[in-house]
Amino acid sequence: MQQLQEQADLPPTRLGKALTAMPVVMTVIATLLAGLASSEMTKAQYDRAFGAQLQSKAGDQWAFFQAKRLRGEMQRNTLDLLSATASSTTLGAAAEGDALAPAPEPAPAAAPEIAAALHALEAEEPAEVLNPLLVKVSIEQIEGALRVARDRAKAYDALTTPLRAKIEHTEGGLARRLRFNASRYDHEAQLNAVIARLLELEVRRINLSSERHHLRSQRFFFGMLAAQAGVIVATFALAARQRNLLWIIAAGAGLIAVVFALYVYLYV
Fold it and tell me: Which of 97, 138, 161, 250 is the most buried (most CB within 10 A)?
């Protein structure tokens, strides 16, 4: 340090010592910003991978939805076909409203933020409309809504299982069984659709988080470049034995790097 101070022709004051240490300080800042940039990029990649997993789960739920809707239609088509060809004794008497599966328990009211985001998602609103609504929704809120939706699906399955077994063993109740299963599949399909929509909402929210981490990584990288520029200029100032313009440029680059990094960390 003493040798560098003499080479730079700096006075042995606090300011002179600070100017001499500037390349070291700027190097430390550049290293910290490089670490932050790498950390944000890792988070962005993790969110993208997690979002892809959730998208696969949402696709499974939509597949269940389609399969159950199709099964329900098959039950009704079979009932219509048998009604036209079989006798009432074979089918068993069943009025239009007879033997319908019970409806699931009403869903609890969703949080206003989730309800607004779901409405925009179902309406296929553009990103300019959907993203501000997604920002207001936390991942924890969506996870809580998913737990409630999955519990409703499990509770409905527990409710209909004994009823289904009872109807299966009813003699002469073919029409009743077909109508019961058709309505049951319709209700189960809607429960799967609710889970699928919440999963898609979580995918959009996580993708938005990934984009934010990616943007922060870029900004920290720019801050690192500014800090490295400060290191280079400060080193030139030491070598050229200049304390005026080059020191001002080096200090300015370092200050810009620090202020820019703080802004990105707090507000981006």
Answer: 250
Q: Which class for 2: exposed (0-12), middle (13-18), buried (19 or more C-beta within 10 A)?
A: exposed
CA distance 174 to 158: 23
Count: domains in the chain: 1
Contact 111, 172 (CB under 8 A): no
pLDDT of 207-265, one tens digit each? 999 999 999 999 888 888 888 877 777 776 665 554 555 556 666 666 677 676 676 66
Strands (E), the chain: none
18: domain range?
2-267
pTM of the model: 0.78
